[in-house]
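A protein record pairs a chain with a discrete description of its three-dimensional fold. The following entry can be read in just this way:
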Amino acid sequence: MIEDAEMCKTIHLYRKKLQEKVCDKVEKSKEIIREAFQKFGSDRLAIAWSGGKDSTTMLWIIRQVCLEDGIKLPKVISIEEGDSFPEILEHISRVKKEWNLDHEFVCNTDVLKAANHKLGAVVKVKDLTERNRAELQRIGFTEEEFVFEPESPECNHLMKTVPVNQFIERNNIKGLFTAIRWDEHPSRREDEYFMKREGGYLQPEHWRIEPILHFLERDIWNTIFAYSIPFCSLYERGYRSLGVRSTTKKFSDLPAWEQDLENTDERGGRFQDKEKIMDRLRKLGYM
């Protein structure tokens, strides 16, 4: 019993130290979130949640603001690309239940059907809906067919950006919370907390709200352990940044938080062809 009490005391002190480290950053995020609620209201906001460490931390902070201020938590959406890690789906299912989330998967079912739900399948453009054909024209894709690979430029647009835009259109969403960090990728270093997406052809006007921009990767893990925020088990196995199952690799057997976060590339295990064209993808609406 004495040993158990000492262990509990040690854990409590450890968490308190971590809370002191991240307190200012969490409070800054809460300021941004409260400003978003004042500007748009809960019913016109939505939260993009991948199940990864960043978006789960962001979701936890938004939920804390809602609990503190008596505000309804906005709708939460996750993208189903057709190649998800089962561990991520399990994590989403568990947290959704524990936190009683109003949650929805958004998916481009037309493309999945044309690919017969199989990676590597050939998709004929003529078999797609008029909207998806128009989306391919918008990104300059002129071929008659493509291979279903969720991280390719054409599939990334169709499977991620398009269903998110359609959700925004259907629900008249004015602001979408996204878990972007300045230190995560060069294309994101100039982002602001509130980024307006101008409306246009196949693009609904809305704002992207990025309340954890100022967090470093280390801050994310410190916040997770400081407040016992749940996270996907893949991070324990050495993954640091989670994409689709077929193209996401781990670079170490160490848990993510024990790796050299300050001197190695967080997204080094992600599909690099996509990483190289991130600026272009983001201009089209990718997060």
